[in-house]
Write a structure and sequence with these properties.
- 2 copies of one chain form a homodimer.
- Chain A is an alpha+beta fold.
- Helix content of chain A is 40%, strand content 23%.
- Chain A is built from 8 helices and 12 strands.
- In chain A, helix 3 packs across helix 4 (136-162), helix 5 packs across helix 8 and helix 6 (196-203) packs across helix 7.
- At the A-B interface, strand 6, helix 3, helix 4 and helix 6 of A face strand 6, helix 3, helix 4 and helix 6 of B.
- Chain A binds a DNA duplex through residues 164-165, 195-197, 205-209, 211-212, 214-215, 227-228.
DNA sequence: CCTTGCGGTTGACATGGATCAAACCCCCCG
DNA sequence: CGGGGGGTTTGATCCATGTCAACCGCAAGG
């Protein structure tokens, strides 16, 4: 029996799993499925993997076979250009899917790296397609998830194309806050899992600029920063900064 | 019988169509389908609309019911933020799909505007889902198209996040050239359908910067510009500019 | 307890692209 | 044929962010 290239390279342990009793089912793929349908999804998603902080879940260029649902933890995806430039294209948290970019060419087009010890559910894509031919709700929900990814990317393009540094960071913090809230965590207090450099890469800024913007927000009483620990003190204030287009 | 809101507002004429004899079928949704499968797709895609230059195919906020395949012509999509900022999120040409962003919320999330007189095929989305539950090839191809859109967006994020003005414009021209080539047009000579301002919006630059970059490319003998008419003289040169990261 | 190193902060300065302004060109229309 | 307007080009100047460099502070390991 041969391990997949991914598992071989990274030696990622494997665990049994079940959507039907996963507390993320309202955020993740099973959303909207009946008991019976979810049981069928369970048959398909029966492998869970641990990915330790710093490990790659997959790398650009590897053959695409599965998408992954994050069960716990935190990831970044990034793209590397031939000339050495790279950029973080997203940060993903529990309940979100990883690997959708690989469908188009049957190869992953970016790297996915765990920013903290994480667990993912392994979803063989051809079996997901098969099941979504049989379960309309699943099919439609999957299409919505892919579409949401496109809309999200448009938002990032907007941010990169039209916003200044502080606006970008405010947008970033508000987005994180909102996603933590949706997962039942505090909306006003959390730990960043990524470095200033990774934030900068995602926002199209240098790490010094990110750091300065954090300091400025703190001076203005909008947030309290201590290393990676963030407390958001003034959400309306951040929102105002985000849309303070009148230079 | 009542017209759809779109048709009512824009009064877009309606024509019969067929994928099976469309010369774009190798680029568009029918890719990879058998004769018989294509015939079934034809049943679904039986309405073609003309959209005149400057008209909206759809607007952000309108209910989403269909996606559109461009049969001929040229479109831009753009997003408008509450604070007045807007950005072009893409330019689409024949054989490409419009409207995928609307699946996620059942509402279009951007505006689609024709940049020249165009024709689109109207594809009712729920019927497409139905058919793709029956035809595996279609289903898989549709997923690939959505995924390709995500990958494309990552490319734009890369461009906006890490490239300087001339690199962005070089990348833009090379991309256009390559897409024209794939459609059987000259790869070295074409007319831009969009203004400098629209290019700038897409690339996260001001129109003056775009104009200056065009002039510079011309001085350097990389291209010949005359208004909207572009002749690409030195593709390797443009590629080199694009990846000239060593500031 | 000290060392080492990585990530973060802060300051001084450089610069690419934005901004403001003027002029130009092409096309349309009277 | 002349005027007008949108789009484009070009120049002068400004400023946000990048760049370079020093320093700080926490955490891991000897």
């Amino acid at each position: 029996m041969s391990l997949s290239p991914v598992a071989k390279e990274m030696s990622i342990p494997v665990i049994k799993t079940a959507c039907s009793n996963c507390n993320l089912r309202e955020l993740c793929l099973p959303f909207g499925l009946s008991e019976e349908e979810m049981a069928r999804l369970d048959e398909l998603i029966n492998v869970r993997k641990r990915v330790k902080r710093g490990e790659h879940l997959y790398r650009a260029g590897q053959p695409f076979e599965s998408i992954f649902a994050i069960r716990s933890g935190f990831f970044k995806t990034d793209v590397l250009l031939e000339d050495g430039r790279d950029q973080v294209t997203g940060f993903q948290m529990a309940g979100e899917l990883l690997g959708l970019d690989g469908i188009s060419t049957e190869q992953h087009s970016c790297n996915a790296v765990a920013l903290e010890d994480s667990e993912v559910c392994h979803i063989p894509f051809s079996r997901l397609e098969q099941l979504s031919r049989e379960i309309q709700t699943l099919q439609h929900h999957f299409h919505k998830v892919m579409s949401r990814e496109i809309v999200r990317d448009h938002g990032v393009m907007m941010l990169l194309g039209t916003m200044r540094a502080e606006e970008r960071l405010a947008a970033f913090l508000l987005n994180l806050s909102q996603r933590f809230t949706a997962r039942g965590f505090s909306h006003s207090e959390f730990n960043l899992r990524m470095t200033r450099e990774e934030i900068g890469s995602y926002l199209g800024l240098k790490l010094e600029t990110v750091s300065r913007a954090f300091s400025r927000f703190q001076e203005e009483g909008l947030i309290a920063v201590q290393q990676k620990h963030i407390r958001i003190l003034d959400i309306p204030g951040l929102k105002q900064i985000m849309s303070h287009h009148n230079h």
